[in-house]
Amino acid sequence: MGRHSVAEEPVPHPLDPPKRPQGRGEATGSHRIVGKKAPRRKVAKWPIAAVVLVALIAIGVFGWNWADGELSTRAEAQAKACSAGDTPMRVVVTPSIEKPVRAAAERWNNAATVVRDHCVIIQVDALPSAAVLDGLVGRTNLDAIGGLPAAWIPESSYWVTELNTAKPELVGSPAQSVATARSADYPLVGLAGKTIDEVQMRASQTFRQYLQQPAQQADFAAAGIKAT
Question: Where is the sequence biased in composition, kind Basic and acidic residues (predicted)?
Answer without folding.
Answer: 1-19
